[in-house]
């Protein structure tokens, strides 16, 4: 009797990494509400299939890393997500960093295999042979962007993928009652550059106010208003629809001071009832990404991001994390 062999169907490999969104994708949403609820598809942009049950990201890509060369300790700690380079230099100067049981010195380098502790806690260093990870989180209202809150309110970090040997670093903040795009990365150095004023990355918001805004008030917001912490102004100001007492506007600015958008509207007597960030630099809030969901940026776009900010980019072909939607 012939031996019957069951044929296993061929499965194609995963698709190419997701590219960065463009302003055209956001315009396809047409209204801030459609963008928030995730009911509108972007224009002709293929989407990777979302997984109903996402695998634990901490268990992915368990592979051997290529041997890394010695690098400055403060740089390694920054790209490992502990903090910015400046913060790491301060910790080393204060004697709060140990390397192989000895107090680290300013300017000291570390190599693969060295045991590094910060404030007594072991840190898994990430050398330059691995790309940092970057994710977009659609933050809902009612979450704080902090791990330590005396009021014990819900925080954004509990919704992020778990990682081992590092931590997520928030790129800027959003208020407790503000929703929308929030960036995270495993590289403190990259996060610091994304926030630094010299790069002038645009922040765009969808704002709903009670009632209409007078033309002279709008012009004041564009010309500049003196706030408690200095002059502030919007770079752009556009109508975005609305009915009755609620009117939506889209505004942008090139800095991220505390509650700056709300304070600017309050200065002209307007009451902000909803506020949602829809863009940060080259990143656009994907129309299909619902509140509380995470999307990881693809390898090609992370490479481009590092190049644009003048950071050391791992050589092509070295191990990287594959993008995954969660």
Overview of the structural elements:
The C terminus is likely disordered. The strands form 4 sheets. Strands 7, 8, 9, 10, 13, 14, 15, 16 and 17 form a 9-stranded mixed β-sheet that branches. The chain has 326 residues and is of the alpha+beta class. Helix 3 packs across helix 4. It starts with 22 loop residues before the first helix and ends in an 18-residue tail after the last helix.
Describe the secondary-structure layout.
Layout: H1 23-29, H2 32-37, E1 71-72, H3 73-79, H4 85-93, E2 97-99, E3 102-103, E4 109-110, E5 116-118, E6 121-123, E7 134-139, E8 169-171, E9 179-185, H5 188-195, E10 203-210, H6 215-223, E11 225-227, E12 230-232, E13 236-239, E14 246-253, H7 260-267, E15 272-280, E16 283-284, E17 294-296, H8 299-308
Parallel strand pairs: 9-15
Antiparallel strand pairs: 1-4, 2-3, 2-5, 5-6, 7-9, 7-17, 8-9, 10-14, 10-15, 11-12, 13-14, 15-16
Helix pairs in contact: 3-4
